[in-house]
Design goal:
The structure is a single chain. Strand 1, helix 2 and strand 2 form a beta-alpha-beta unit. The protein starts with a helix and ends with a strand. It has 2 domains: about 70 residues, FAD/NAD(P)-binding domain (3-Layer(bba) Sandwich), CATH 3.50.50.60; about 55 residues, no CATH class. About 20% of the residues are buried. With about 130 residues, it is an alpha/beta fold. The strands form 3 sheets. A 3-stranded parallel beta sheet has the order 1-2-8, covered by helices on one side.
């Protein structure tokens, strides 16, 4: 993402999205896909490291697949449930069967997820600043 303050002050756009993380970049993608002139503004420079669990739930996997990123996700570690360990005990749960969502998630480092979704938004026509 560029950070030219003059461009940010003078660009005209139909849709302005503040924040270029996964949610903002996804919004930019969908708005551009539907024909809008969209600008996504992010104050941080990518790639960036951000503390987060890195786990994508089945719902997130479905959203990314809908954006055409399903094949790219296959390079990452796939998991099919949740496991918690505390006080010497372990609990393991499978993702429930759902008519829309897959029964798996992926582990994707946040810096890679940010880049993947932002580049996808740019390919759809969004301008990222």
């Amino acid at each position: 993402m560029t950070s030219d303050p003059v461009t940010m002050l003078t660009r005209e756009t139909d849709v302005l999205v503040i924040g270029g993380g996964p949610a903002g970049a996804a919004m930019g993608y969908w708005m551009a896909e539907h024909g809008h002139d969209v600008t996504v503004v992010e104050r941080k420079h990518f790639p960036r490291e951000k503390t987060c669990g890195d786990g994508l739930t089945p719902r997130a996997v479905k959203q990314l697949d809908d954006m055409g990123l399903g094949e790219r996700l296959k390079q990452f570690h796939r998991y099919e449930g949740l496991r918690a360990t505390a006080h010497g005990k372990e609990l393991e749960l499978q993702w429930p069967t759902h008519p829309v969502y897959p029964r798996h998630g992926y582990v994707v480092r946040r810096r890679e997820l940010d880049s993947m979704v932002a580049l996808n938004a740019e390919k759809a026509g969004a301008v990222l600043l």
